[in-house]
Queue: 2 jobs
Job 1
Amino acid sequence: DTAVSQTPKYLVTQMGNDKSIKCEQNLGHDTMYWYKQDSKKFLKIMFSYNNKELIINETVPNRFSPKSPDKAHLNLHINSLELGDSAVYFCASSQVRRRYTEAFFGQGTRLTVV
Amino acid sequence: DQQVKQNSPSLSVQEGRISILNCDYTNSMFDYFLWYKKYPAEGPTFLISISSIKDKNEDGRFTVFLNKSAKHLSLHIVPSQPGDSAVYFCAASYDSASKIIFGSGTRLSIRP
């Protein structure tokens, strides 16, 4: 029973296209995140949502728009895809109200823009 | 500006020996530190953590040490096993941050 699941696992698309990555968690957590792992393998936070409200936006281009329809879902929509958007995107969730808590990650979506 | 740094991109250790992975941080507000393990084509999985009120936390073969004055933490794995071969990420957070900040990872290889 997967705790944090994201789809698709692989996504190959052309420059200029618009694509979405979906994420769902069944842990009852109140906070969800999107992280990007670039070619240098750094894991950088992009967005954080707490109870469907955006609380962190780490200077990500506005071509990236997260959408949280409810606490269990945080989708990432990317407009006008560029070559530099190629990376692995990880969704994660945690229970922020409980201090000293870890985040649980999905398996990642490898996005390749050609 | 890297607030969490893992200066060794890779480490090779013989099976049965101790693996020591190091991590440094710059933000003195961090009060919770985590280690994650990541296999290829999978998401990071939580391994062990420590809060700033402690200097050591042990869980089976894994022990994390925290030196607040040096802003340094380390993960000890003993004895190292082949299944420990993975990328290990050090991470940190603080109460009001609502985010976990990761280091760049260290690739650990356990050789027979």
Note: The CA atoms of residues 3 and 27 of chain B lie 6 Å apart.
Job 2
Amino acid sequence: KNEVEQSPQNLTAQEGEFITINCSYSVGISALHWLQQHPGGGIVSLFMLSSGKKKHGRLIATINIQEKHSSLHITASHPRDSAVYICAVRSYAGGTSYGKLTFGQGTILTVHP
Amino acid sequence: SQTIHQWPATLVQPVGSPLSLECTVEGTSNPNLYWYRQAAGRGLQLLFYSIGIDQISSEVPQNLSASRPQDRQFILSSKKLLLSDSGFYLCAWSVQGLNEQFFGPGTRLTVL
């Protein structure tokens, strides 16, 4: 079992729909990241959170530390939101300070007009 | 502001040939630097990280090596490429002691 599991693996939506991508992890973490990878490959950091909820534009990220679960929501989805969304966690593993991340497999989102 | 560069953007190399991918960071000092690989259909995997010049840690045994000859330069190398080295290679940096990492544009390597 992977330390970071995302669901669904593939997601297709119509423009305007509300989208949720889930991430579950099995280790203690100091932070969780949501990343966006565009078709060209470039990766952009969307959120870094260790508790509660963050919002940026149409994107909302939540995390429940007790349940080891995070969700990424996209409201009023648009075709330009089509990308791979990746969840990554930074574990406490030995008190390292180098920011090692463990990544989920990614969720491929396609939003049709 | 900080920027991270990688080159080349794409590379096609024959099996057995050497490899050198370069990553440079501007606008910051003494960053942590990372090399990741994303194989086709798989998630990102950390290959190497560095907390300072000539300080490299390898996460997985492999055909690749990394070097950091200067504070903001990180190089990924191989003496002889294997087919399994094909993938998308990403460099990233972070401020030491902080969590957030910033990714470069990546290099798509195809080994034929």
Note: The first strand of chain B starts at residue 3 and ends at 7.
